[in-house]
Amino acid sequence: MNLPRSLTYEYFNTAPLSMPNASMLNMYNLGVHLRKVYGEFLGDLYMSETMKMQTAEYPLSMLSGQLVNAGLWPPAEIQRWSADINWQPISTDYTVAQEDTLLMGIQCPNFVLEMGKVLNMAQVRDRVSDYSSLFDHISRSIGIKVQRPSEVALLYAVLETKADLEQSLPHWAKDIFPDGAMYTVSLLEYDLLWQTSLQKQLNGGTILKEILANSLMYINGRIPKQRKLMMYSGNERNIVGVLKGLNLWSPHIPNEAASVIFELYFDNETESYGVKINYYTGVDGITLSLKMPNCTEICPIKTFLYSIMDLLPQNAERLCNWKKIDLPIIPDNAIYSRSVSHTLKSITFTLLLVITLLVINLY
């Protein structure tokens, strides 16, 4: 079995990898799904003012963003540049990896140091030691010393890709993959990435802050009204961190193309704003409507703000060990002054903005 030289997040992100055809189709189909759901809202004609896509600096994130855009924005007749090619180029943005606190927070220098402290906590050592026999079994089988849950989680991703490619799996994985101990330890890794305040702010908090800030800037006119969609091509750890931050997490390994979708609504009757959260599972086009604890299906934006306030870093770059960013000032008239009961069936709701965080295939 050919394995990567290093079972680290850094190696997996930077390695020159290719996506299996099935994975590319899943990403493309996410774009098709978004077109089906939001097509009338977005319109058929792509304009740069309508959508912004941000990826990480790494190849798989960029490729995933391009595939989603291909499914989402087939060229309108006026934009066709070839009779034989039903595709148009769509630009994406990225932040260099060494400054990306939004999508690459777990690689921040301070996060790495914090993770070392977490792994040295007595209760964590006890939990990890429960799987020492698994680590020994894998280490003997692959000839690489495995002793951290993160290494098992990354190896799990390798096996998932081999399964997607319909390649034969190693005999040593028979009883521990896809279910069993490797799955359990992969879920443990998600928990270990979300133990301390610093971890929560850099692994989920930065994205929630971005979503909140974009919503408020749109409300305040600091984002053009022509903007209807903002997309972020992240990874499954981003998804897990966001769902944990919203108190909506249920243990599972997110599928590729899984997405957390935030919809910003305006209620014409109460003249107030709210956020609805959907989870596209990436499986058979299933979308789940999620409701935060102590909130309505369309959560008043003030309630949404208060529920995530402790997770929002005041200065993500400094927390990470990079430069400063600031959360926009929240004027009183931009948020709910009271909790309002909502129903999606009410025709008084106007969909204003959609923000999507999607999962790429890790390996």
From TrEMBL:
* Enzyme Commission numbers on file: 3.1.3.2
Catalytic activity, per the record? a phosphate monoester + H2O = an alcohol + phosphate
Q: Which UniProt keywords apply?
A: Disulfide bond, Glycoprotein, Hydrolase, Signal
UniProt keyword Mitochondrion, yes or no: no
Instruction: Please name the InterPro entries in this protein's record.
Output: His_Pase_clade-2, His_PPase_superfam, Histidine_acid_phosphatase
Q: Name one GO molecular function term.
A: acid phosphatase activity
Protein origin, superkingdom: Eukaryota
Q: Which family does it belong to?
A: Belongs to the histidine acid phosphatase family.
**Cross-referenced PANTHER family, in alphabetical order?**
ACID PHOSPHATASE-RELATED, PROSTATIC ACID PHOSPHATASE
User: What protein name does the entry list?
Assistant: acid phosphatase
Please name the source species: Bombus vosnesenskii
